[in-house]
Amino acid sequence: MIVRILQPAACRAAWRTRVSLRQEQCLFSSVPPQPVPPVPQTLQRYIQALEPLLPPDELAHTHRMVHEFGRPGGLGSQLQERLETRARNTKNWITDWWVQWAYLENREPLAVHSNPAISLPRRDFNDWRSQLVFASKLITAVLDFKAMIDRGQFSVEHMRDRPLCMELYPLMFSSCRIPGPKHDSVAHYGRSRRSPTHITVVRNYQFFKVEVYNSDGSRMTESQIHTQLLRIRSQSWKTDKEPIGILTSEHRHTWGAAYNRLFRDKINRESVRAIETGLFSLCLDSPVMRISDEKYASRKAAQVLHGGGTFSNSGNRWFDKTLQFVVGEDGSWGLLYEQATAEGPQVATLLHHILEYCEMPDPKRAPLVPLPMPKKLYFYIDREIKRDIELAKQNLDILINDLDVNVFNFNKFGKELPKKHKLSPNAFIQVALQLSYYRVHGEVCPSCDIASQRMFKGGRTEYIRSPTKEALTFVHAFDNRSVSREVKMQLFRDAVDAYAALTQLALNGLGIDRHLLGLKLQAIEQGLSIPKLFMDTGYGFATHWKLRTGQVPASIDSVMCFGPLVPDGYAICYNPQADHVHFSVTAFNCCEETNAETMSQTVKRTLHDLQELVEPSA
Question: How would CATH label the architecture of 35-91+411-614?
């Protein structure tokens, strides 16, 4: 995710304004609408993006498709006019379509395939007592963050001196994805007349509804919440309960059908609603199995991502919930989030606030008032639901065993090295990933990075297609000993600059993939046949993203983790710091061609080689 967020405490002096979320009209007036790019420009850059990937004959065929689609007065022009009308009559012409198409109509399981996880440095404790103390602090920190938003004290973020759209922040709380038979929906309960005042806590597969506000509306203190967590621990000793949360890891059609069966019973209906309406969820996990220090970071990230399996903590998850905080007895912790409502930059800002808050002492004494007991959520599990759970357990374990997660910290250099040589740090890493993939597989592949569109009203994300002609020329030359260092350095700089230029276009709302998607969906909405351009084999090949990448830069030592988009692909996420870079690499074991460990080692070697290129040792 390419977006630099100025963190709330560290960079307040750099902000020129402090605009509250309650000044929404003022804020939106300063955030422009997302532009609809011109069709000729999008089609020209689409062809350029295919040049490194397609052989000449296929490229020529695609070129004919593009020419037919984009001719004056043709179908592309007609669809463009409708898109421009849509843009004038909606807050954002693509966001609703994108959320529906990319998330709510996607029927793959949320676990691994969709929900990203963020793993943070292990806390200094190794028992349940310290686990509950830290969890209490974490809960109060999140409530403090929410209070800043509710009171209008949260500052508007900026990127490159441009204000960013802030509308997702309040939507992260009391929201949940709801499964459906054909497509899902998202429910936001925080906007109701009586906003929820509880969270859900799950331990040993058992869910509890916990009020976190006193009867006078004040937030509970750390000591009050700690008392509640102690009560939950005393009521959740047994681990022989059915892991009802496993159902949320299923294929969305399957879970949608099971969801309807659950809702036949009133007790089940009330329990599920308590989870869905809660401000957020807290998962109190058992320790991560520790084999070696070298592999612990990878296991810790995988634990947050999917729970480790049905014999570990996967039953402690409700994957539909927008925000799920995970705290393990061994000091591992992190956050899992659902993407229809939440995105990486906002989550990174929330985590930064939590870490800052955790360094402060509890400012409040606990009031001398009786606390309501946490309400245990019960489920009536009949034969059909039992069968659904058993099937979900089998499918999730298969998925987890198929996923290889490799997390590492590259500590030879960080973002300051590219900056010193006037190179974009993100573009530097992207070209390094292209070279790494080429070294492993002998070719470049369809690759996408993510750029933020929050500079526009209601903006979400845009793809940046990483392979460029300049990158292809560079990767062909780099391991060729007959090419001089000076030539390689110039080719590398050309590749980095070309990617940086694509990034700038995407940040300005002139990317190609959301525009192409909008044209396609506009045709469908009008009841037309899908244009031939999108039925072309070149289009299908170039959107089979074998390399899914994402940068979520944050001032904290954290790493994001998610699964590949395609069975024969990789997902690589990174968080560049000043003198090191955190990486996570995932791949599926079922594909003999991909290997997360091999790719990780190649990325390390490639970054080291590029360091030698830009700063040759004596």
Answer: 2-Layer Sandwich (3.30)
